Amino acid sequence: MKNIVIMISGRGSNMEAIVQRCAAEGWPARVAAVIANRADAAGLRFAAAHGIATQVVEHRAFATREAFDDALAMAIDAHAADLVVLAGFMRILGAAFVRRYEGRLLNIHPSLLPMFPGLHTHQRAIDAGIKLAGATVHFVTPELDHGPIVIQSAVPLLAGDDAQSLSARVLATEHQIYPLAVRWCVEGALRIEGGVVRQMQGAPQLWLAS
């Protein structure tokens, strides 16, 4: 039974999707804890209501990023985490923290990486005039919003889309691909070869919105 620790900053809708799919599909894993960097993160209430341990590691309580990262690592390691999942965790993590969990630290980003790393992805996609947007689940590396890609979702841009409407459609696909990627990890179905993630069972690593 693998232990998953999920890190959030707000509502944690991807966290909710992972918790629900883990229970419904009987993964060989459990969500052992949800950790937030904000005491007012709404997702903490959902986790507690589902019997999941919660903890707040408030970033503003630490003088340096390194001290914050160290406190986060202590909280994660207290739950013997086999996999650490960033689900709307809005803090940049230092290189030492990332290396500590190398190969077992996942993130989801609301663009088709390597396009549009960072913030304001949906508006940037619209402004660029691209025809497909989407989301990317990837293993975390020290370079922000980079790292080996596990799975992507693709969403067509529609006439009249604004950042809000596009965001909503992309988020719906995130709730599909992130639980799938986490399941693959806990089932040992992924291998990284030359910086490329292979799904060893032959499952597609692209999810197309209908």
Overview of the structural elements:
The structure is a single chain. The chain is of the alpha/beta class and 210 residues long. It has two domains: 1-101, Rossmann fold, CATH 3.40.50; 106-210, 3-Layer(aba) Sandwich (Rossmann fold), CATH 3.40.50.170. Helix content is 34%, strand content 26%. The protein is built from six helices and ten strands; from the N terminus they run E-H-E-H-E-H-E-H-E-H-E-E-H-E-E-E. The protein has helices at 13-25, 43-49, 65-77, 95-100, 121-128, 163-186, and strands at residues 2-8, 29-36, 53-56, 83-86, 105-109, 132-139, 149-156, 190-193, 196-199, 206-208. The strands form two sheets. An eight-stranded mixed beta sheet has the order 3-2-1-4-5-6-7-10, with helices on both faces. Strands 8-9 form a two-stranded antiparallel ribbon. Strand 4 (83-86), helix 4 and strand 5 form a beta-alpha-beta unit. Helix 1 (13-25) runs parallel beside helix 6 and helix 5 packs across helix 6. The protein is globular. The chain starts with a strand and ends with a strand. The model has no long low-confidence stretch (mean pLDDT 97).
The CATH topology name of the largest domain reads Rossmann fold
The portion of residues forming beta strands comes to 25-35%
Largest sheet: 8 strands, mixed
Total strand count, please? 10
**Can you identify the CATH class of the largest domain?**
Alpha Beta
For the record, the count of structural domains works out to 2
pLDDT averaged over residues: 97
